[in-house]
Amino acid sequence: MQNGFSDAVMGAVRGRFAHVDSCPFEGRRVFFENAGGALTLNSVVETSAKFAAIPDNQGRANGASRALVEIIDLAKADMALMMNAPQGQFFVGESGTELLFRLIMNACLARKGQGQVLSSSLEHPASRSAAARWAGEAELHHVVIAHDDAAGTIEAAAYAEAVTEDTVVATIVHTSPVTGMGVDVGAVSRAIRAKAPDCLIIVDGIQHAAHGAIDLAAYDVDGYVISPYKMFSRHGFGLAWMSEALERVAHNALDGGPALNWEMGTRDTGAYATLSDVCGYLEWLGGEVSGKSDRRERIIAAGEAIHGQEKALTDAMIDGVGNLAGLREMERVTILGGPDNDAREGLVSLVVEGVPSVEVVERLNAAGIRTHLRKADHYSGNILTPLGLDGCVRVSLCHYNSVQDVSQFLAVMKEIAE
Length: 418
Description:
alpha/beta, seven-stranded mixed sheet, four-stranded antiparallel sheet, globular, pyridoxal phosphate, lyase
């Protein structure tokens, strides 16, 4: 398999994740539901258990409390390194969706009555719904740019055509969780700032985070949100980064408290600590594939290797493995975004002519292959309805998936598609 991991690296990678080839409830299975939540690092499992047993809180006059604060500070420094954020701040909240709503809400209210909010129809409702609601509350005009239905993504040129001098808030999805296609965030940001340099730009990075490097300094945006359970950590919290411009806007805070504090109440130190586990894993992987010693260089190398491994897997899924035909050769299979799309990030969504997508998912699951049904509902209707589809099968991979996983999938799809 070209551009993928060596057998040695593949084995080491899979050994670092929990339940990599079996479900604790259903037994052996191939996990192609990574967009719904990636596998969890074994180190994250251990860290979560360790901190769940600690009774102390931050901000107390004792050694345990001071240690917890140091662990949180280290996690924030690790995130700044991992995402290349030389300024601004990181904080955690209830979920990625909740944090997107909060950042977008405060950005809109800070620019009340001053112009327009710019979004795209490619976005997950977490950002689209927040922009729609808070644009209305803040007396701003909400403009939704149409994405390219055929390609399953949106180009910077589409933003350039829609942005105006009075665009005060803009939202971008880094990767679509339905089509799997990425967006050039840096190019979009440049297109926006060319006409509206002070626009507050907020990015939904939830789907992208597990599939390649993040470089906030290069993007020139004001907010970036991920859901750590989709990046090898665990459920129960989201992570947001804010620029210095965004962190200073008015927001909910306790009277008399620190002016730039965005966290509400005491946070889980263990949640922060698992972020250091994720950073450490990427540093390890980058060292394995590159031999680099610098921490940031290792993280960059890991992102490149992850992208290469996932491209090799999706190419194998589309073009075939050994004597197994790929999806491209299955006449009744249609791939959303087309089979040849350089924007693809570890995800293939498809439909089978004559077989309802819900049935395809059920048959794959019965054969031990976990995928997911996306319906034309409030989550995915923005993508599926323009294509005339009531649903699709989302097959989402991650770098720890193997070519053998793809082979098992194609063997079952051959039967379904015939």
